[in-house]
């Protein structure tokens, strides 16, 4: 039952930023149904299993910011690290119209097993990394699909999610909106944060400045696009940090 639940890169980098990627991979540990959730391969490469392109952006952005990064190493369909422990979507049995066969009959004991082996070590590692200095800034990187089944197309190239602490998001959104080729979402395509999610747990509850960046995944599905977006975002993030006096 050996499966590392997270990856840390650049642990000794000195920047205030800590870059987090909750949904970095579609990996399924082999101790869960033999490493197979029962989905077709094409489903495991969709947004339902992980945030397409987010890991590549995270790696490149952390390097450009000279900051450490921590990335999950398990699919959100195994257990979603960006949910509170009492959230009913912590272990998804159906997502965007797709039934997850290996989760259909998962009971409380199975949820507890996944939580102990994956969810809790991941969050313990984030807490340790965030505490490495007093003025840590949490930057969470996600991606979103251009359109959910049966829903309207999403027009945003990038969205910034925030709630309860607008020190960084306000200047960040303002700077992004100066980019004339971008449609920037303010709490779009989702609104704010959920109680107990990663930003709530490691930033809002601890008073750390933070922002959650959502990139539309068709724009970052290649390595070259991931690098390009990281190179575009890094100076904007630094400028927003300076404006916010962080």
How is this fold's topology laid out?
Blueprint: E1 6-9, E2 17-21, H1 41-44, H2 54-65, E3 69-72, E4 94-95, E5 98-99, H3 108-130, E6 137-144, E7 158-161, H4 169-176, E8 184-186, H5 198-204, E9 210-216, H6 223-243
Parallel strand pairs: 2-3, 2-6, 6-9, 7-8
Antiparallel strand pairs: 1-3, 4-5, 7-9
Helix pairs in contact: 2-6, 4-6
Verbal overview:
This protein is an alpha/beta fold. The protein has a single domain (6-243), classed as Aminopeptidase. 30% of the residues lie in helices and 16% in strands. The strands form two sheets. The chain has a seven-stranded mixed sheet, with helices on both faces. A two-stranded antiparallel ribbon has the order 4-5. The model has no long low-confidence stretch (mean pLDDT 95). Helix 2 (54-65) packs across helix 6 (223-243) and helix 4 (169-176) crosses helix 6 (223-243). The termini are far apart. Strand 7, helix 4 (169-176) and strand 8 (184-186) form a beta-alpha-beta unit. The protein contains six helices and nine strands; from the N terminus they run E-E-H-H-E-E-E-H-E-E-H-E-H-E-H.
Summarize the structure.
The protein has helices at residues 41-44, 54-65, 108-130, 169-176, 198-204, 223-243; strands at 6-9, 17-21, 69-72, 94-95, 98-99, 137-144, 158-161, 184-186, 210-216.
């Amino acid at each position: 039952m050996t499966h590392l639940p997270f990856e840390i890169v650049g642990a000794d980098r000195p920047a205030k930023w800590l870059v987090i990627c909750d949904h970095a991979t579609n990996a399924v540990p082999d101790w869960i149904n033999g490493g197979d959730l029962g989905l077709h391969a094409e489903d495991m490469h969709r947004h339902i299993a992980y945030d397409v392109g987010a890991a590549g952006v995270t790696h490149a952005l952390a390097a450009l910011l000279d900051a450490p990064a921590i990335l999950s190493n398990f699919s959100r369909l195994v257990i979603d690290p960006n949910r509170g422990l009492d959230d009913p979507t912590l272990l998804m049995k159906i997502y965007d119209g797709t039934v997850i066969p290996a989760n259909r009959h998962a009971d409380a004991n199975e949820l507890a097993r996944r939580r102990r082996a994956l969810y809790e070590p991941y969050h313990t590692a984030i807490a340790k990394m965030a505490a490495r200095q007093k003025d840590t800034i949490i930057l969470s990187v996600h991606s979103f699909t251009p359109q959910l089944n049966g829903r309207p197309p999403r027009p945003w190239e990038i969205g910034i999610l925030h709630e309860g602490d607008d020190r960084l998001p306000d200047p960040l959104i303002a700077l992004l909106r100066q980019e004339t080729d971008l449609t920037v979402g303010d709490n779009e395509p989702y609104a704010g944060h959920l109680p107990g999610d990663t930003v709530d747990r490691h930033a809002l509850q601890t008073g750390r400045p933070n922002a959650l960046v959502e990139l539309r995944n068709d724009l970052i599905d290649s390595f070259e696009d991931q690098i390009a977006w990281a190179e575009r975002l890094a100076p904007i993030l630094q400028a927003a940090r300076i404006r916010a006096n962080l």
